[in-house]
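Severity: low
Component: inverse-folding endpoint
Summary: output formatting inconsistent between runs
Steps to reproduce: submit the following structure tokens with default settings.
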């Protein structure tokens, strides 16, 4: 085992006075690393907590902690006394110049085998989360698996450690320098999924027939992070998601790949799997007129309202029903004169319509609104 971090000890009598030459006297004995915890709940740095047993003599003990080629944040190193916190005291810490090292001076009321905990932030030891989702042939459920990938390029070896994320079960693994390990983190074999098409009027062309090439509408799988679907115990970290589908013949086909964001409990994970040309939206502005114009003393228009009508025709060419999320945007202050479909306001200017389309069916949105007090 290659130890790049070294913990050495020296001791002098409590009543004696340490000479300058005694400052770096080192014992041959090396306290072995005991139980170790690797905490990966902060992407900026990994917290390491390790226990060691120091053979302390009565009096003043010097503990030399050095690291060579290990990516440690020097300011983060801490020492906690565990066995005899009332009789053993950390007096001070010094940093030898031009060295990756520090020296603790510890006063002990008696000679003891003292358990201590050393903690520090270690860089270049991190994790990635990946997901693999296999949809059934009907696209009603997913077999969802998540893997954690541990990568250690910190310069330090860990023969055995308890690895902890900010959610889920901790697990024991060894991880050597320059080693990468992929571990199954959780598996949910039958997660309900909703297939959703999304047309955003601010992104996609309103009249696909006037666009060169094919215009596809983004398609995604929507999964709710809740207990009813075999999830919901913790937030789902962001990571790469690869999506497959059962082909009905014992194999799978690739549907797509997406990068998921962090999904809190109760929220939706939306996985984009590609674009579809089975649903076509043709949208036009049928009216855009100024009304209620207000003029200043020079007969110049300074404020006005608008009278606007938008019509969107939605066609489903699929053999199965589909649910389209239709996103519309109305800037500025506005009010709705009439609308034939129900909507939710995502924010002050964004409206979302959930349009259910039967197989080979059609639907039309007619939206009549006014924008107010425009200059």
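Observed output (run 2 of 3):
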């Amino acid at each position: 085992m290659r130890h790049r971090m070294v913990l050495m000890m020296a001791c002098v009598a409590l009543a004696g006075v340490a000479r300058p030459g005694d400052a770096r006297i080192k014992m041959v004995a090396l306290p072995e690393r005991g139980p170790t915890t690797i905490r990966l709940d902060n992407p900026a740095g990994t917290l390491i907590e390790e226990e060691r047993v120091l053979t302390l003599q009565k009096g003043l003990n010097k503990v030399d902690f050095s690291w060579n080629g290990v990516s440690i944040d020097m300011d983060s190193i801490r020492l906690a006394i565990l066995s005899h916190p009332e009789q053993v005291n950390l007096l001070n810490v010094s940093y030898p110049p031009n060295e990756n090292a520090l020296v603790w001076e510890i006063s002990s009321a008696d000679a003891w085998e003292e358990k201590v905990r050393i903690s520090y932030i270690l860089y270049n030891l991190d994790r990635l989360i990946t997901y693999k989702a296999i949809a059934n042939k009907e696209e009603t459920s997913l077999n969802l698996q998540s893997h954690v990938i541990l990568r250690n390029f910190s310069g330090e070896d860990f023969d055995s450690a308890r690895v902890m994320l900010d959610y889920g079960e901790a697990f024991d693994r060894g991880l050597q320098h320059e080693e990468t390990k992929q571990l199954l983190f959780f598996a949910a074999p039958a997660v309900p999924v909703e297939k959703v098409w999304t047309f955003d009027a601010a992104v996609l062309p309103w009249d696909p027939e006037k666009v060169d090439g094919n215009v596809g509408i983004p398609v995604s799988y929507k999964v709710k992070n809740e207990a009813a679907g075999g999830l919901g115990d913790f937030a789902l970290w962001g990571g790469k998601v690869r999506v497959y589908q059962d082909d009905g013949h014992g194999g799978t086909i690739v549907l797509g790949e997406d990068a998921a964001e962090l999904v809190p409990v109760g929220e939706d994970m939306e996985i984009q799997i590609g674009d579809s040309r089975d649903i076509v939206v043709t949208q036009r502005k049928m009216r855009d007129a100024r009304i209620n114009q207000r003029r200043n003393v020079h007969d110049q228009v300074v404020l006005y309202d608008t009278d606007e009508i938008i019509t969107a025709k939605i066609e489903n060419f699929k053999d199965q029903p589909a649910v389209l999320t239709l996103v519309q945007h109305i800037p500025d202050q506005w009010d709705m004169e009439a609308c034939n479909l129900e909507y939710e306001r995502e924010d002050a200017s964004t409206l979302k319509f959930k349009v259910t389309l039967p197989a080979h069916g059609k639907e039309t949105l007619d939206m009549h609104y006014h924008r107010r007090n425009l200059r």
